Amino acid sequence: MNPAPPSSRWLPRLLNALVVVGVVAGAVWSVGELFRPPVPSPRMALPRNLDEIKAVAQAVDASFAAAWTAKGISPTPQADDLTIMRRLSLALAGSIPSLQEIREAEAAQPQDITQWWLSGLLADRRSSDYLAERLVRVYVGIENGPFLIYRRRRLVDWLSAALLENRPYDRIVRSLIAGKGMWTTSPEVNFITVTNEGNKGPDEAKLAARVSRAFLGVRIDCVQCHDGKLGSPWKQADFHKLAAYFGQADFALNGLRDDPRESYRFRYLGRMEEEQVPAMVPWKPELLPEKGGPREKLARWATAKDNRPFARAIVNRMWALLFNRPLVSPVDDIPLAGPFPPGLELLADDFAAHGFDLQRLVRVIAATRIFQQSSQSADPGHPVTVEAEDLWAAFPVTRLRPEQMAGSVIQAASLSTLDADTHVLFRVKRDIDVGNFVKRYGDSGEDNFEDSGGTIPQRLLLMNGSMVSDNTSPSPLVNASTRIGILSPDHATAVEAAYLSIFTRRPTAREKTHFTALLAASKKGVMRNNAMSDMCWTLMNATEFSWNH
């Protein structure tokens, strides 16, 4: 293994020292703040149209129930509130809830914990940042791209701001496809500039593939080199006529623009010469507007209310983000004419009918019985079957993504919430730690939601790497494990606080008895701190911590 560069060694140490200074300056919770529920955040209010949202969710549930009845399958019972909170936080913010947030929820006792919790998450910059990163991976991948005319970070920040203000999704996509200007001041054009490899200008074929897969959920790029076979409806010309909409895109001193003198040319399979390719859409040409440049027409066509694949594609992807498994798999290969799984068309209809409102879509999916049901059977003697999970009669159990793992470890090590209001030193250190962990654990790349299975090196990284050990080692100023041990009035309370911080649940009677006895056997001071550290290290390395359920 190559030694780490000097900067990667001294920078985290410097940040660690600065973080300690910040904690000493006032970040440490008092005993009252740790064990007495704080005042709930005012931003966590139930939506005014909650009844309407639940009505749509119930219709979705009914479509699934019909499939269960036909197969003779009984769904699992509803999950508890803390489990649902954990699912939502992992899906939208990329980490588990903090102990502070759990205390806020317990103090509020809202009428609908799911929607109340969502209100806080959807108003939180953590969520828009995390979702923006997940979506940008779909739009432009994870590569750095051409340095001079590509700014990935600006694109992520632009999309995060759009998601936070709940900008309609059709407007977001139109900006990406038809945007103009500089990649620095008009970040949306980075969707185009990332394809400028070798300073040859925009790659029309790559852009057509991105549009069809990312925004329409159709893999028309499979016929890029030859006509489709085995029943495929697509021809090679269909793909390249779609690519021709980007034929006039060009780079100038004032940024991305359209040059009417330019056109798209391609040599088809079996032809001797390149030929100019006319811009044509592969279906529903009647939805094309009469006025505007090629990219503007394509953007309007792709996001048209009556262009069903547009709504289906984002519904399938948002479902996948919430469940870590799409309704239709692969997530970007939805049959144009069906058949469609239960719920997909109902959700697509509602999404289009309400102005392509992403936050509403998230609320509707989260309000379904499908999302809120347990991953475990009510009868321990009859566990959930593969068929039941495939039919969504139980919440699917999936591995956490690398950034979710790292974010959860770091959050579990802090009693307070690490959000946009956290001191910048904490946030910078967290971002560096997460980035380093993901590099070593293995970046999963673009969002395909395919579980390749865990590896032995990944497991060893958790057990022997610095991520878990640094965040559980005895440190009364930084790590929650030691602070819980110091501030807890008794051993049982310490065990419960640790379980809430790490598993987002309370320990079972057996677990509480076991760990309470271990803490009781340790003496006060260093031995007590070491015992708390060992317990938290054990919990973070448990299988339960690294899976969503």
What would you note in describing this structure?
By secondary structure, the protein is mainly alpha-helical. Helices cover 53% and strands 3% of the residues. The protein has 26 helices and 6 strands. It has helices spanning 6-27, 31-35, 50-71, 81-93, 99-108, 113-122, 125-140, 152-164, 169-178, 190-193, 204-215, 236-243, 294-302, 308-323, 344-353, 358-367, 369-372, 386-390, 402-412, 424-441, 456-464, 466-470, 480-487, 491-503, 509-521, 526-540; strands at 249-252, 255-258, 265-266, 275-276, 398-399, 547-548. The protein has a two-stranded antiparallel ribbon. Strands 3-4 form a two-stranded antiparallel ribbon. A two-stranded antiparallel ribbon has the order 5-6. A hairpin with a 2-residue loop joins strand 1 (249-252) and strand 2 (255-258). Helix 9 (169-178) packs antiparallel against helix 13 and helix 11 crosses helix 12. The protein is globular, with a radius of gyration of 25 Å. The model is unreliable at 1-11 and 17-31 (pLDDT under 50).
Identify the quaternary structure here: single chain
Global outline? globular
Q: Count of DSSP E strands?
A: 6
Helix/strand/pairing class, anyone?
mainly alpha
| Overall mean confidence score, pLDDT | 87
Radius of gyration: 25 Å
Strand order of the largest sheet: 1-2
Low-confidence segments: 1-11, 17-31
Strand content: under 5%
Q: What's the end-to-end separation, in Å? A: 35 Å
What percentage of residues falls in helices of 4 or more residues?
Answer: 40-55%
Largest sheet: 2 strands, antiparallel
Count every helix, treating DSSP H or I runs of 4 or more residues as helices: 26
